[in-house]
Write a structure and sequence with these properties.
The structure is a homotrimer. By secondary structure, chain A is mainly beta. The first copy, chain A, is 11% helix and 28% strand. The first copy, chain A, has 4 helices and 33 strands. A 10-stranded mixed β-sheet of chain A has the order 6-7-10-13-16-19-22-25-28-31, with no helix packed on it. The first copy, chain A, has a 10-stranded mixed β-sheet with strand order 9-12-15-18-21-24-27-30-32-33. Chain A has an 8-stranded parallel β-sheet with strand order 8-11-14-17-20-23-26-29, with no helix packed on it. Chains B and C meet through helix 4 of B and strand 33 and helix 4 of C.
């Protein structure tokens, strides 16, 4: 259900075989062992192995997991390269650069000038000829619905909404001026600027019955998904970064920001103007008070507050202590 | 002056009489006493009693206040129901569900699929056939002005602005990509998702000479108003939630968020990135420093800072104390 | 390179000579010495002196610097007026009002009703007849590109983007729903409301290879520039106020706000949801941790955190101290 066909969103502009990848990144190659020749159609991540794909890897993983598939590995990690069990592998100096050069060579995306999408003006909105909108759904004015996008039954997409690189399930409401499927903030800190942006070629999936407010931004996954679970309620001006996964029944109040790759469980409530640092995990049934800055994993059923966020009882005690110290 | 005609924004899609409401919510009814039969045309709140309306009530109020009007009361509070002075009342299990079922049955609104609005493309913007824009006002490109909206004299509505469910008085400026009259974040915490959203059928009134920045979101009232007073200045990316009332001459700097039902007096200044918790009252002539998190009522002429916000002098002392503790 | 022709953006609607300015602000004048008669074409600031211009001044500066140019000075500072070396000067009661009255008399801008711009609908976006977009650049749907705007080579302007009063250099990417060149939050605190807004007649320059996320707002300079340096990366929902200058290679994460006139050096990294108070200076190679509130100048190579932001080591010590105090 959470699968998607990358080529619906990111067409392959140039075909290349695994044993010819070396031509794209030759200045970057230290060594290689490529025995298999297959046409590259997709990209894998540590979470999802896909057939006929490339996997960029800096950390060691259990190679058995993807052994049955046509996958060529590109790594900057000598230990990985030295594992002779791996048969198709290129050892590079700069993994980030290799990612950029190869992905930009193969795939077209909306941060590259070659990206093409054709639209029909339908009821005041631009709908891609390669989008599918269920006839029971309603799209208001000045929207843009990009290629590959599928919108399920009984959805309401309000005015001036941009939806690209996303699958929208049934009964979803997205309010005015929101942007879904936008580019994640991914680049090498040492090489900045639009020319070094990491191509972001994943998508967003918004599951059934989600309500999204106005002026929200939900970035697409880099390789896989950004995911918003069923029945979640998202208020206005909320930012959800790339690769974030949110469980079902979330309630996220206005102006909250969730940094990249955060994983949030089910039934989580987040007060307004909170921030969640990247790559942390929030358990099920957690409550995060308004204006919290969460910097660490939070276990199931916790209630936290403050910055850095701590148990709300401790936080309240601290407020009282501070008050006493000040005699006010 | 702060009245509005609900049906201009939220047309009645099905007529129903007070003594037939029971049919809509029959699974929810515990008991009832309905003697009067009148056609439901409106909805009342604890602040405003309207003739031929329903009033949903969980707390006790002085019933004399609305006794002279055709109002049918729906409550989940046995004490209220047990008051035999009240002649038209339905006692329900789940007040929130009853609200949703009845309001969605009677009224059309922009979170329901039956909502209809017809537009003309005038000077690059979509203007509802049921909106009134004064001829001296200017609307830039890619705007959407929805049904019932009235825009007074000499207003400037910039590009990609969405105005729905709102009355805009004279000399108002609204800058690019802002959304006015959007849906408030109202739902039962125990039943989440777009299917359980509380219908929001109030409006926004923006009074004379208000200047609103870019990418702001101002949610409409749930039943009554969200109101911005005369001469107020609102910066970019400010979120103002449902039912907020702001006095005249407010100055609200960028990225501030004001949660639902906050009441703000006249001549209030709020620094950037501040947050005000729901249902609090801010007096006249208050200054809230930047990045404050205000959690309690603030009395007239106060200056506050910090989170939770305290008197700014105390806050400054605390900063010095913290510095001393750290010897830096 | 950072020059611009004001009249491309803000046409002169009425010509006036320096010795006739008194007619516009007569109720405001205390005294004057105007010997030179030249036509007012521009406005100067303390940073940039322009020929045939007005300079509004409340603080003393070295007048030799602009002596060679046709500049008429308007001041509310008696000391400045009493300097008899200055030959063309008007001494006024209210400098702010004089600024408003004179600038609104001479220049047209997008907060005044007389502002005119004519558009062609090109590939689903409205492009001003007086804008220049390089043929290699791509503009997606529902954008508005205003008069005077120049967009360099190989830029990508995504959907529903508004660009006014701005020069965009080569290879810039601006993502969906962002607003560039919007009105700065400038007005007299004692006289609020749209009628007293200080005309903002500067522009934004976005230099080469900058990547800007979704739903950002970048206000134009009041008189001169708001400037974003080469290779800078700006995430979603970032607010950059008027007159801000950002060096090259900045990385600014989501929901950060930078108040007016902040100067930021090169190679600066700012974590998400940070705020920078107005008129401060951030050195080169500074790192500002997420959720920081920076209230003072920060010197080169510093790493700061917290609110008010302090050295990150001190901040971490404080967190540990607080933890000990609470025994949690």
């Amino acid at each position: 259900m959470l699968n998607f066909s990358r080529q619906n969103f990111y067409p392959i502009k140039k075909k290349i075989k695994s044993n010819n990848l070396k031509n794209i990144i030759k200045d970057n190659i230290i060594d290689q062992r490529v025995n298999l020749s297959f046409e590259i159609c997709d990209i894998s991540s540590m979470d999802t192995y896909r057939d006929n794909s490339i996997l960029f890897l800096d950390k060691f993983i259990d190679i058995k997991q993807y052994d049955s598939k046509n996958i060529i590995l590109i790594t900057n990690n000598k230990k990985i390269f030295d594992n002779k069990m791996i048969k198709n592998i290129i050892f590079v100096k700069d993994l980030n650069n290799s990612y950029n050069d190869i992905i930009n060579y193969i795939f077209s995306h909306d941060d590259s000038l070659d990206y093409l999408d054709k639209f029909d003006l339908i009821n005041n909105s631009y709908i891609s000829k390669d989008a599918k909108v269920h006839k029971t759904s309603k799209i208001f004015s000045n929207c843009v619905i990009g290629k590959g996008v599928e919108i399920g039954k009984n959805c309401i997409i309000k005015n001036n909404v941009v939806i690209k690189n996303a699958l929208i399930k049934d009964n979803v409401v997205i309010s005015d001026n929101s942007s879904i499927g936008t580019t994640g903030f991914g680049f090498d800190f040492k090489k900045r600027g639009s020319l070094y942006l990491n191509p972001q070629i994943g998508i967003v999936i918004i599951d059934q019955n989600v309500h999204i407010g106005s002026s929200c931004t939900i970035d697409r996954g880099k390789i896989d998904l950004t995911y918003i679970g069923k029945n979640s309620m998202i208020d206005n001006i909320v930012h959800i970064a790339h690769n974030v996964k949110i469980g079902k029944n979330a309630c996220i109040a206005a102006q909250t920001g969730i940094a990249g790759s955060v994983i949030i469980g089910d039934d989580v409530t987040i007060g307004g103007q909170s921030g969640l640092a990247g790559h942390i995990k929030i358990g099920n049934n957690v409550v995060i008070a308004g204006r919290s800055g969460v910097t660490k994993n939070i276990s199931d059923n916790s209630i936290v507050a403050g910055f850095p966020a701590i148990d709300i009882k401790e936080w309240k005690k601290r407020i009282i202590r501070e008050k006493k110290n000040g005699h006010y």
